[in-house]
Amino acid sequence: MQNKAYSKILRATIASSCLFCMPALLPVAHAQEHNFVVINPSDSPADIVKKAANVVPSARQFNWQRQELTAFLHYGVNTYTGREWGDGTESPAIFNPTNLDADQWIRELKEAGFKCAILTCKHHDGFCLWPSAYTDHSVKQSPWKNGMGDVVREVSDACHKYGMSFGVYLSPWDRNSKLYGTEEYNDYFVKQLTELLTQYGKVSEVWFDGACGEGPNGKKQHYDFVRWYEVIRKLQPDAVIAVMGPDVRWVGTETGKGREMEWSVVPKDNLDQDAIAKNSQQEMLTQPVGDMRGEDLGSRKVIEKAKSLVWYPAEIDVSIRPGWFYHKEQDNQVKTPKELMNIYFSSVGMNGVLLLNLPPNKEGQLAEADVKSLRGFRQLYDATFKHNLLANAKVTCQLLEGKGQNLLDDNYDTSVRPNMKKGTAVFLLKLKQPVTFNVLSVQEDIRKGQRVEQFSLEVKDAKGQWKKVTEGTTIGHKRLLKFAPQTAKEVRLVLHQVRDIPTISEVGLYRLVE
User: Fold this and answer.
1) Hey, how many other C-beta atoms are within 10 angstroms of the C-beta on 49?
2) Measured distance CA(335)–CA(391) in Å, rounded
3) CA–CA separation, 394 and 490 (whole Å)
C-alpha cells in the first residue's frame, strides 16, 4: 500500500544470473529445518545449495501462505475527502458513514474465498478507526454513533463470526501526532499497537509500510521496528509481521504480478552488515535488508554471495480500483472478474499470497461494482478449479516416499518424494479417456523446503510422440501455468533440476475458459 515510500528505503539491486550444475542428490535426512541459516566462509557452492534447500517456513509463515487470498480494507477520513494520503489536519467530524456494514464486507470476502481481512486501523493522517485512549483524533470525536463507534471492533467481530482471520494495518507515519519525530512517538506507537493487539481477539497479520515523511513539527521519525516486533511476538505470537517486518516481504510492485522465478529463500543480510551489528538477531526480529524488487532474489548465483539465508515469502498487493481508498468516480474502473483471475495466476500462481484491496464507500459498504466483480471472480475460479481433470489418472514414478495417488487426492498434507539418483524425476499420468486442458498446477510441501528449480509438462500426441507444452522454474507453495489448449490422455511432469529431493504435494490439470 503506497509502497513508493517503502521503495525509497531500498538500496541495492540483486543481479539475475544463471544456475550452477546440480549437486549430487541423496536420500538423506535434512541438514536442518529452520527458517534461517548462516552461511560459513568455508561452505562450498554445493553446501550453500543444500542449506538453502533445508530452510523452511516458520509455523506462522506456513499458515499465512496456505491462505492464498487475503484482503485489504482501506477506509478512513480519506474516504470522505477524496484523497489518498491525508495530511493529519482533517476534522474527525467528516467521518460519518450512514450505514456502515462490516458484516457485508467480510461476508462477501468469505464467499469469494478470502481467508484474511486487514483493516487500515490508522493511515498516514493519524485518524484512528478505534477509540484510542492516546489521541482525540479518532472515531470517538466523530458524529458516527455519537462518538461511541469502533470500526476495528465491528470488523474483528465480523471476521470471527465468519471464520476469517483478522489483520491490522497501523501506519508508522503519523501526520497528526505532535510526538512524531521524537523518541516519545515510539512509546505512543507501542501504546496504540498494544490496544489493537489486546482488545480485539486473535490477530493473524500486522502490516507495516515504510512510509516516513515529516510530522506536524517538520521532523521525521526513526522507527523502533525491533521494539515493535517484540511487542507483537509477545501479544500475538502467531501473527505474521509484514511488509516492513521479518515474516513477509513486499513483492516489489502494486500490480498484482509476482516473479516468474519466485524464491521464498533469499539472502538476509549480505547487503548491509552495519544493520546486522546494531540489530538483535534473536527470533529473527530484523527484516532482511537490501533490494527485494529485482527479478532474481534467490538463484544459486545470488545465494552463493550470502552471509545467511532466510525464509521470506512474497505478499503481492493490488487494489481492485485505481486508488486504494474509495472514490465514486472510479466506480467504472473496477477490475473485471477476468482481470482478477489473471491476477490470481500471477500472484498465488507464482508462489505468492494475494493481498487484494477493496475500499468501503462513504456509506460504509463495499460498492456494488466491487461486489459484482468479486462474485464474478469466484464464479470463474470455481468453474476452473472445482475439478482436477487428473483426479482419476494412474500415476507412475519411482518414489522414495509416498504413493503416486497422493498427488491427486486434493490433500496438501499427503505428498511424494521421487527417486532422483539420475538427477531428474518423471511423473507419468495416464487417463482412460482424453481430456482437454490449458492449466497446470503444481505444489511443493514447503514444510520440507522449496527445492524445484526447473520443470516441464509434456503430452503424448495422437502419433504417440511426446511434446513439451509448458515449462517453469520455481514451484514453491503453488505454481500455475497457462498454455494453449491440449487434448491428451497421457501427460508427464518432468523435474529437470532441483536443489535436493523435493516433496511434491499436488498436481492438477484444469480447463480455463478464456
Assistant:
1) 23
2) 32
3) 10
